[in-house]
Amino acid sequence: MPTLQLPAPADLRPWVLGVRVDVVPSGTLNRFPAMVEGAVVVILDGSVAAAHGPRLDGLRGVLTGPRSQPQVSRTVRRLTAVSALLHPAAVARLAGCSAQHLRDIEIDLADLWGAAWPGALHRIADAHSDFERVALLLATLRRQLSTGGADTRTRALALHRHAALPIHAAASRLGWSPRQVERLFLAELGLGPKQFQRVQRFEQTLLRALQQPVASLAQLAAAGGYSDQAHMSHEFRRLSGQAPRELLLRLQANDPEHWPIVHGWQFASTP
Fold first, then answer.
1. Stated pTM of the model
2. What values do phi and psi take at 268, rounded to 5?
3. pLDDT tier at 271, thresholds 50, 70, 90
4. What b-and-e string marks burial along 173-194, b requiring 16 or more CB atoms within 10 Å of the CB?
5. Residue 149 has pLDDT above 70, yes or no
6. What is the CATH number of domain 2-147?
7. Peptide bond into 59 cis (omega under 30)
């Protein structure tokens, strides 16, 4: 659960959406829904085991890509981590490869950044305060994000700005063919256009539900652009693992299993 949450500094926006330090007790079940954003997570101490994946032990850092499906893990040993939530277009820039390769997985930063990472990792771990750890992580991201041409950055952000449009409309506005748009979505944002829209719509509807707790499910479905309430319920089950009513009741009760949503893990200044 967060001990520190800060917005990203102006010079790292829009690539970095926010930074935080979390301490998660042993035995906690961690339920993350699908999300278009990525993250850099530095595990300072403790360990966490995914339901279908490797166990992550501190001291290490990972880059996580977009999630097309919910993810469940369990904190094996009390976890302390400093993290940066990333704009969807930042993942490919930090990985140096197609964001599609990071969909639903995490990659050790030592494998991505080579000799530059171990020193940065130990400086973050040896810092005297959470504020200093955050500053060191941001400095590392600043260096890594400085690579890549301006044309690549412009293209990725243009795709994101037009993500809500039907693919043919987006292609027309961007001056590309629909096939180019689909290929670039996978490369720059990690998900195809339709799947990106599905996950982004789910996130926006979930955020709206948290901000407007008196809204009915029918109202949320209409505001979110779903064809009807049944359509929204189907999407919530696919992307969070739970029906909307069940999920929202758990969030309102501050269910510790859903601490990533309750404590705003994925909603740090989401555009």
1. 0.90
2. -80, 90
3. very low
4. ebebeeeebbebbbbbbbbbbe
5. no
6. 2.60.120.1030
7. yes
**Domain coordinates of the chain in residue numbers?**
2-147
Token reading at 117: 């990472």
Judge if the upstream peptide bond of residue 14 is cis by omega within 30 degrees of 0.
Answer: yes
- Per residue in 222-268, pLDDT (tens digit) is 999 999 999 999 999 999 999 999 999 998 888 888 888 877 665 54
Phi/psi for 127 (5° steps) reads -60, 155
Give the number of other Cβ atoms within 10 Å of residue 230's Cβ.
Answer: 10
Helix (H) or strand (E) holding 111: helix 109-113
Please give the average per-residue pLDDT across 193-199, as a whole number.
94
Interhelix angle 178-189/167-174, rounded to 10 degrees, is: 90
Report pLDDT for 2: 73
Q: Is the dihedral of CA 221, 223, 224, 227 positive or negative?
A: positive
Rounded CA-CA distance 107/93 in Å is: 14
Residues 25-29: contacts with CB within 8 Å, 24+ apart? 25/75, 25/78, 26/75, 26/76, 26/77, 26/78, 27/74, 27/75, 28/74, 28/75, 28/256, 28/257, 28/259, 29/72, 29/73, 29/74, 29/256, 29/257
Q: Looking at this protein, which amino acid is placed at residue 266?
A: Q
Instruction: Compute the distance between CA of residue 170 and CA of residue 153 in angstroms, rounded to an integer.
Output: 18
Helix (H) or strand (E) holding 17: strand 16-24
SS3 content of the chain, % helix, strand, coil (to 5): 50, 25, 30
Tens of pLDDT along 205-222?
A: 998 998 888 899 999 999
- For residue 174, how far is the Cα from the chain centroid? 25
The pLDDT > 70 percentage for the chain reads 94
